[in-house]
Inverse folding.
């Protein structure tokens, strides 16, 4: 759905008590860019809570670089221009070391191109899933902890075909996320023998999409690739009112409580959705047991945000300073084999191993995080369905 970004701040200087000279504080600051306003505002707070939990855990276990880890958030509004301004503040005023974010793909690209590249800042996005991120010219600075929509599109196609859905109409929000997802879905669905009766973009922010829906009635199976509390909700509500569609399908951007606002739950019972998931195993079990104010372990992209923040902090500790130089190499080092496994929450153990010169390999809430050359990770996609007015996860799509 979205794309990668991440930032950490340099430590400030303070006057040591009863000392005649200034001393450099230890610790580090990282940034978070996400759409706290705009089309994903209902999805962003739980994602941010995943990153904040990491900061709390690290500080409870002795901190980073011998001092406190701080997290500064900024609103990217799921918009490239707003994200560029947010990144400029975090990078050039707050002097963060690296950034978790952004979330929407265009938001991540705008933030990185605005100040990230020139500032030599590592970005780790927990949610930017558009294929466009793979080919971004980034000097090995942009990573993501969620799989690309190149995978999600294929898995959605597989799921629909397995359910016997032989034709679909697609409407997608006209941005990197929507187009990339729609292209991947259309190609895989057609290759699998399905028929894409229509595949049309729509613009965000309109009050009326009835004309667009009128161009999609060649199939009764409507796929909406948009955002839950923006065009996704409006299109779904007006599609239900039209009576022209019997099956509704959405991508990860649609998985939010706001999607069903103003819609009779019985009218969308069984709505199909997909999003990034996590494998079974000890790392996932540990993560799912975490509790904190505002934190929901299985919220959309919360596990990926936790992993992004934990990896960024590990890379800073491995790099030995809050400087940006060398952080990308350190990130690849702590995220990949060989090395002793570090699981969610095992910050103190990781620091002790790093200080002892022992290689580590973080295995996260979203699974293994071995970045490829482009900064992408493999992953799994899960199916969800609306049951009784709420999204219920049904399992991994094989």
């Amino acid at each position: 759905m979205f794309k990668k970004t991440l930032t950490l701040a340099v430590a400030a200087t303070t006057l040591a008590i009863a000392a005649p000279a200034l001393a450099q504080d230890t610790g580090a600051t990282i940034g978070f860019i996400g759409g706290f306003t705009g089309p994903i505002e209902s999805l962003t707070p739980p994602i941010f809570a995943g990153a904040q939990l990491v900061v709390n855990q690290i500080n409870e276990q002795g901190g980073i670089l011998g001092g406190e880890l701080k997290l500064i958030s900024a609103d990217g509004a799921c918009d490239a221009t707003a994200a560029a301004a947010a990144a400029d503040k975090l990078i050039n005023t707050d002097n963060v070391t690296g950034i978790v974010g952004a979330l929407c793909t265009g938001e991540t690209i705008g933030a990185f191109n605005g100040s990230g590249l020139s500032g030599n800042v590592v970005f780790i996005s927990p949610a930017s899933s558009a294929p466009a991120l793979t080919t971004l010219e980034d000097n090995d600075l942009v990573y993501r902890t969620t799989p690309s929509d190149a995978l999600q599109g294929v898995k959605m196609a597989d799921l629909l075909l397995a359910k016997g859905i032989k034709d679909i109409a697609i409407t997608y929000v006209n941005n990197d996320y929507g187009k990339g997802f729609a292209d991947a879905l259309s190609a895989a669905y057609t290759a699998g023998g399905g028929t894409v009766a229509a595949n049309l973009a729509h613009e965000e922010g309109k009050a009326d999409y009835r004309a667009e829906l009128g161009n999609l009635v060649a199939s009764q199976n409507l796929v909406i690739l948009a955002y839950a509390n923006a065009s996704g909700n409006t299109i779904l509500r007006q599609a239900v009112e039209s009576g022209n569609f019997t099956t509704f399908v959405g991508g990860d951007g649609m998985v939010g409580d706001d999607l069903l606002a103003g819609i009779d739950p019985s009218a969308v019972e069984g709505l199909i959705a997909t999003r990034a998931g996590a494998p079974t195993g000890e790392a996932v079990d540990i993560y799912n047991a975490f509790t904190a104010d505002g934190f929901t372990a299985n919220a959309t992209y919360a596990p990926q945000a936790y992993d992004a923040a934990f990896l960024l902090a590990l890379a800073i500790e491995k790099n030995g300073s809050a400087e940006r130089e060398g952080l990308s190499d350190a990130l690849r080092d702590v995220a990949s084999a060989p090395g002793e496994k570090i699981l969610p929450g095992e910050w103190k153990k990781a620091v002790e191993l790093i200080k002892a010169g022992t290689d580590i390999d973080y295995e996260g809430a979203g699974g293994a995080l071995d970045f490829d050359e482009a900064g992408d990770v493999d992953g799994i996609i899960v199916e969800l369905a609306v049951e009784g007015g709420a999204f219920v996860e049904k399992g991994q799509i094989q």
